[in-house]
Amino acid sequence: MERTLFILKPDAVRRNLIGPIITRIENKGFKIVNCRMELLSLGMASQHYDEHKDKDFFSSLVAFMTSGPVLLLCVEAPDAIKQGRIFISSIRADFSIDKTENVIHASDSNLSAKREISMFFPSNILTSEAYVMAHATHQ
Fold it and tell me: Which one is catalytic: 48, 52, 105, 135?
């Protein structure tokens, strides 16, 4: 099993797309290990997109990501990073308005996934066994 980070961006939250997107995430076989809704600070958004700091779209991207709440999801699946990148292309195709307001982010590499998960979920990430046990007790 591998973990990655999905972020449902402010446009997804604003447009009430959380339910449909989470349904598709779970139907695709990703298990949600941890999640929370948060309004990102300028510092957190800037840190998250640090690799783009020298690009002309950096300021508008940070402004967009801090324009409303986001839903942060740590998900788990076999080959989650590669499959997550493929998966978000269909989500974006179905729901995106434009190149910036593209509803979802997914980590693009193992290194990015580890950095992003530790940034947004620094402690108390459930193990897959704890997730299975917690999920089984709620059904």
Answer: 105
Q: What's the burial of 4, exposed, middle or buried (CB within 10 Å: 0-12/13-18/19+)?
A: buried
Q: Give me the DSSP letters along 1-55.
A: -EEEEEEE-HHHHHTT-HHHHHHHHHHTT-EEEEEEEE---HHHHHHHTGGGTTS
Mapped onto helix, strand or coil, the DSSP state of residue 93 is: helix
Tokens of 9: 């961006």
- The strand order across the sheet containing 104-106 reads 31-38, 70-77, 2-8, 104-106
Give me the residue spans of the domains in the chain: 2-35+72-137
Could you confirm whether 135 is annotated as catalytic?
Answer: no
pTM for the structure as a whole? 0.86
pLDDT in tens, 50-71: 989 999 999 999 999 999 999 9
**φ and ψ at 69, to 5 degrees?**
-65, 155
Topology of domain 2-35+72-137, per CATH? Alpha-Beta Plaits (3.30.70)
